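Subject: complex prediction, re-run

Hi both,

The earlier run crashed halfway through, so I resubmitted it with identical inputs.
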Amino acid sequence: MNDVVVVVDYGAGNTRSVRAALTHLGRESVVTSEPQAIREAAFVILPGVGSARSAMDHLNGSGAASALTERNQEGGAILGICLGLQLAMERSEEDGGVSGLALLSGEVVRLHETRVPRLGWSVVEPWGEAFYFAHSYAVRSRDAIASVDGVTVAVRRDAFLGVQFHPEKSGPAGLEFLDQCLSLV
Amino acid sequence: MPLPRLIPCLDVAHGRVVKGVSFVGLRDVGDPVELAQFYSDGGADELVFLDIAATPEDSSTMTSVVAQVADVLEIPFTVGGGVRSVEDASRIIEAGADRVSLNSAALADPSLITAIASRFGSQAVVVAIDAGDGVVHSHGGRVATEIRTVPWGVEACERGAGEILLTSIRQDGQRTGFDLELTRAVRDAVSIPVIASGGAGSAAHVAAALRVADAALVASIVHENPGGLAGLRREIEHEGITLRPLKERHG
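This time it finished cleanly. Structure:
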């Protein structure tokens, strides 16, 4: 165990912004898909941009997928962000159907709104704080803990917490949220 | 529906912010990183960086600007100008930008929209449309094409764009208000968000645009007084538009 936060690499972009936010909070981080690092880290972030299928292919290929599953079973803290939240579910409608990590029960479905993708800031209930969203799919899960307009935007089960918004792109509110997540460990 | 967004646009050439004059309170008025942070602190919901020189020699300069911005900025930002291939998009997104904006390159090869969207998702692809007299203009608005504005918006949407940045060439820089009719016509025809651009001269103009569009791009109105962004937000809210609640920075 050490204090370094592992940001899981699966070949998509955006790890830079997550690391920048962690640096801002005074936390050291490393971007890797190495299974041992994922199992032993104090805290793991599964970030999110890209397509579900290529992300799962990367996670399975590198052994990160089974390391995340083991970590979750042992009660190690994981924060899933956007696609990272969606990958933790059992399955996704995206890309014609993709099997997820199944850390939680539930599925990922296409947003049925007038305008998709949903881009911009929304106040998350019941937290009463505005965060930044950029997504075309959303989760349905009985582990939902927060929502926007009836759409689930956060789920929690044991030591896994997943959010649909981008805390690393949500200004001071996002940084405070990340800080709180890290301090739970 | 997400809350309407106010998006300052910074024109960059050779790694420096150009245009805009009296930046009170800044050490270096041309530094994109410092300006980005300044606007973010002032309550910008998002930023757009437009590389207006966008020569091939500039691409590495721009990538380094993007990386530096990504390291300090905690709000989303889009980078446009000079994105001509999936590799260009990938370089910019990997450097930390949330989205790329395509303009002339998408007109020349519309399949580029789909190629970037399938790799990074639709939310990462903005198609910028410079519109005048019913048709789309390319090359920074200098060349009129024969492509009609509304059908091009529809095509961009069908090909996987996640947002349209719609600039009225006639209104751009005039500060007499947005072209609401054009904005409404495009937004009614597509199922993705639309950013209205060109013509912001007052809070009332921006409020009117935000009643029609999902976001408004502002340039000269904020560049002349960057410290006035917070005041502009308050005035827009007085016009009856609800913007995102800002949270004070602690520590």
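The mean pLDDT of chain A is 95.

- K.
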